[in-house]
Design goal:
The complex is a heterodimer of chains A (550) and B (346). Chain A contains 16 helices and 17 strands. By secondary structure, chain A is an alpha/beta fold. Classes of the chains: A alpha/beta (550), B mainly alpha (346). The complex binds iron/sulfur cluster (2 copies).
Chain lengths: 550, 346
């Protein structure tokens, strides 16, 4: 089979890392016990947080919508067990800030009773893409590869952007993580069918599935599931971190380079994760919302590493306890992989849609970071940067808080893959500096927008006062001329009307400023903005008002 | 349960500054051994003195600046500076010359700018140039290489000369020293002689200067190992040697009587030490691909110009320092395109 494989391309930089995946792939996929309690954050995706539709005390069924999406770039949340809503309150969530976030808490009744009626769409091939997109939106599906961008939005790039190629990401390049590997091994048919659905939705000419060659079993399973069909192409790609980065994978599979500051669709490509494809399949075929996912439990301090199908909202502590617990040496708990994941301070946080791996490490496996030395400009970081940036220069300017220069040096093209920090002989936490600079720039940008708005309002007010003064003067003149004086009633009404108009305008203007965007990367923000612009252009109201499963 | 939180990435690679510096230091070995073999105990004494001075000065400066001393000494950068300076100095330079050089290298060249990573100039070359300007006579004290008639002092004589300024009984300073090949070429060409005539002087070997050629070949071998081990990039050494070679070739072809052959230039003086070990000092060299090529080519050019028309027999130290000045500008204007900025169909 591999001989029929199309020519692959290369991406710059990158690292060969020890995979550490064997531990968690040694046994088959297991299903975690139904949790007694789930905690479901209202925001498990990029965009606006969902709005609760239930109240404490309400009884809910598995798969029932409990929070509707708010605005276009958003996703609904579904009950992942049947039971009773016990609270809608701020709870710890797996987020780098360590802050609390609003969550819906459900006490399970242990019966796992599903919502009715279920309306599978087995004949999806005959359906309009818009209809399928709506289903995908309603099922709360977001990118399961980590970013969590609402999938339906991503599948609607707008008419001026024809999608020629659909890229399905099964690379899973980060060490330790194996949930996609297991998914492809055990549910290859679902993944394949999901890819077909997505391809139909985005009307792509071809669909390429990229899988790193260190997952031979996944590749075999996927090829077996594809059989003799030729509508999808499964490609074994060389193992190199971060080949699973969106831009890197597109480069490897298609040879196209997503422009700096651009989106994949600019080169006619859309990229979705294999996990997302499987979720899409279940949503369309079985009318099943995104209520569970596969999570890798691994690391030297995880007593029994493995992959688990878990209901969302299960607390990490419950999942780990059910899976054999930690060893006594546990020191660091990482959500995601060792390169891009973030360290959790506590395991009392829920599994969310984007949580793919829990890595429990001891101090031998991941020792505390060594004391950093000054940068010696050795350019080891330059050699491995897949975005072809100059990480040492970025570091220098970020440290000096020269944010304009960091942008000159393309800070926002940095994908935070961590390759630069990994090779740095001075052990400088480079990525930390880039995140800091990005956050600061975002912050300044928001301040500037606010200031702009205030200035515009002020100018508007001055102009209005000016106009009103002129108006008054004119009226006085006219009144003097007039034989019969006018009554002031109309005037007052007009003023009230004006005030109402102004208030409305102001409200609209405020509504347009983004919220909940503090942690977005620029690419994500651009994606949101592009999506919003398309929606406005299409004159469609923001969907999300009604999100009951149909 | 609470866990430690650190920022990603959580994996740390095997690279370490200390390891890097130590490997570079080991790569000096072939050239250094050749130097000791051909130029005697003075080289070894220089190395020891310079190493001690640089390490001492580093520790002292860190103390004065209130920085932890241990980790900085372990990073190996001061030691490497000491070795490079020690190898660059004339073997018969008196002890205080080495001491002054080491102090200037570490204090002026490094710590006044903020220490490792912040120094715009190569510290060893700062020390060297200070000495060249302040003590021009002492900086010419090269002994005749092994295999050339002349006095080859043993360890005791070398020590006596270096520390006490005592010449072996009945000898003048002249019998201890001999002009280096580069110096010889300068002087004799200045006197109107043709290269053809000078070639027969005992100081010349089969390729370039006797002894010097082997020392340079030694550094070349070490440098190639550095390249193989990916501890340095090919660009700077290639550009230094390439531009020196091309220039020497052009002038040599044009007027072989007055301009030495490219091979002579490549294997003389500090060419190989400079190209592989000094110009590649990451802190002070350009860090972009195109910048490194320009940086290296600039060094080759300046070396050639100084050797032929400047006031000194060799010009590696000046060339490196001059190009150090250009580094920030080079880096800024040679920024490579980032991913997604190139033409994908290139
Ligand atoms: S790898 Fe580290 S020390 Fe080397 S240039 Fe990059 S930031 Fe500086
Ligand atoms: S983290 Fe950013 S700067 Fe560092 S290697 Fe990755 S993309 Fe380049």
């Amino acid at each position: 089979m591999p001989e029929s494989q199309p020519r692959l391309h290369d991406f710059p930089g990158g690292l060969h890392l020890a995979p550490h995946k064997e531990a968690s792939t040694a046994q088959p996929l297991q299903t975690a016990a139904l949790p007694a309690r789930v905690v479901l954050p209202l925001q498990q995706h990029i965009g606006e947080a969902a709005v609760p539709l239930v109240r404490p005390g309400d009884r809910v069924l598995t798969g029932q919508v409990i929070a509707r999406s708010e605005g276009y770039v958003s996703a609904p949340v579904h009950a992942t067990v049947s039971g009773t809503v016990t609270a809608i309150a701020d709870q710890p969530v797996p987020h780098p800030s360590g802050l609390l976030a609003p969550c819906i808490v459900i006490e399970s009744d242990g019966r796992d009773q599903w919502f009715e009626p279920r309306r599978p769409l087995p004949d999806w091939q005959t359906l309009d893409p818009e209809r399928l997109r709506q289903r995908i939106r309603e099922m709360g599906i977001v990118g399961l590869g980590g970013a969590g961008f609402p999938s339906a939005v991503k599948m609607n790039p707008g008419g001026d952007h024809p999608v020629t190629t659909l890229v399905i990401n099964g690379a899973e390049c980060e060490p330790y993580i194996s949930c996609d590997d297991m998914l492809m091994r055990e549910r290859a048919a679902e993944v394949i069918e999901g890819c077909r659905i997505i391809r139909h939705v985005v009307q792509a000419e071809r669909c390429l599935i990229g899988i790193e060659d260190n997952k031979p079993q996944a590749i075999t399973a996927m090829r077996a599931a594809l059989g003799d069909a030729t509508d999808l192409e499964i490609l074994s790609i060389p193992t190199r971190y971060p080949t699973g980065g969106e831009k890197q994978l597109i480069r490897v599979l298609t040879g196209r380079e997503v422009p700096s500051n651009g989106l994949p669709v600019d080169v006619g490509v859309l990229c979705h994760n294999v996990g997302t494809a499987a979720a899409v399949y279940r949503a369309v075929r079985y009318h099943e919302p995104l209520i569970s996912r596969i999570v890798t439990l691994t690391g030297a301090a995880m007593a029994r590493p493995g992959n688990w199908a878990v209901r969302l909202g299960t607390l990490v502590s419950d999942l780990v306890a059910g899976a054999g617990g930690y060893t006594p040496d546990v020191d660091r708990l990482i959500m995601g992989g060792p390169m891009m994941g973030f360290a959790l301070a506590s395991d009392e946080v829920p599994i969310t849609k984007t949580l793919n791996c829990i890595l429990a490490a001891d101090r031998r496996e991941l020792p505390p970071p060594p004391q950093p030395l000054p940068c010696i400009r050795c350019t080891a970081c330059v050699d491995v940067c897949p975005a072809q940036l100059l990480p040492h220069q970025l570091y220098w300017y970020a440290r000096a808080r020269d944010f304009d220069k960091t942008q000159d040096f393309h800070l926002f093209d940095c994908i935070e893959c961590g390759c630069c920090s990994y090779v740095c002989p001075s052990h400088i936490p480079l990525v930390q500096y880039y995140r800091f600079a990005k956050t600061e720039i975002w912050h300044q940008e928001q301040e500037r927008r606010k200031a702009d708005l205030a200035r515009r309002r002020h100018e508007f007010r001055l102009a209005r006062l000016e106009r009103e003064k002129a108006e008054r003067a004119r009226r006085i003149r006219e009144r003097k001329k007039a034989v019969k004086p006018e009554t002031g009633g109309d005037d007052k009404q007009a003023v009230i009307q004006q005030a109402l108009e102004r208030a409305r305008a102001r409200k609209q203007a405020q509504g347009a400023t983004p919220r909940n965007t503090d942690n977005l990367t620029e690419a994500q923000q651009r994606q949101i903005e592009a999506a919003e612009a398309r929606r406005r252009a299409a004159g469609k109201p923001a969907p999300g008002g009604r999100n009951e499963p149909d | 349960m609470r866990f430690h939180t650190y920022s990603s990435p959580h994996l740390t690679g095997p690279n370490e500054v200390g390891l890097l510096m130590h490997r570079v230091a080991w790569a000096l070995a072939p050239g250094a051994l050749a130097a000791i073999w051909f130029f005697g105990w003075g080289v070894l004494l220089n190395l020891a003195l310079s190493l001690a001075t640089c390490l001492g000065a580093e520790a002292l400066m860190l103390r004065l600046r209130g920085r932890p001393v241990g980790p900085a000494l372990r990073d190996g950068s001061a030691g490497l500076t000491g070795l490079l300076l020690g190898l660059a100095l004339p073997p018969l330079a008196p002890w205080w010359v080495v001491l002054v050089g080491g102090l200037f290298a570490m204090v002026l060249g490094k710590h006044l700018f903020g220490g490792l990573g912040y120094n715009p100039f190569n510290p060893a070359m700062v020390g060297y140039v200070v000495l060249l300007i302040s003590f021009p006579r002492e900086m010419t004290l090269w002994p005749p290489p092994q295999g050339v008639a002349g006095l080859h002092p043993g360890l005791l004589d070398a020590l006596a000369w270096k520390f006490l300024g005592q010449l072996p009984v009945g000898q003048g300073l002249d019998s201890l020293t001999m002009a280096s090949p580069l110096d010889a070429v300068r002087t004799h060409i200045g006197l109107g002689q043709r290269l053809e005539e000078i070639r027969h002087l005992p100081v010349f070997g089969s390729l370039a200067g006797r002894g010097w050629e082997w020392v340079n070949l030694g550094y070349l071998a070490g440098g190639l190992w550095l390249l193989r081990a990916r501890l340095i990039h090919w660009r700077i050494p290639t550009a230094v040697l390439g531009s020196l070679f091309v220039l020497a070739m052009v002038f040599h072809l044009y007027d072989p009587d007055n301009y030495a052959s490219p091979l002579f230039h490549l294997l003389s003086g500090a060419t190989m030490l400079g190209a592989f070990f000094i110009a590649t000092d990451p802190v002070t060299a350009s860090s972009t691909p195109r910048g490194q090529l320009i940086y290296g080519a600039g060094i080759g050019l300046i070396v050639y110009v100084i050797r032929n028309w400047g006031g000194y027999p060799d010009g590696m130290a000046f060339a490196v320092l001059l190009m150090n000045i250009a580094t920030p500008t080079l880096d800024y204007y040679t920024r490579p395109p980032v991913f997604g900025e190139r033409d994908p169909d290139e």
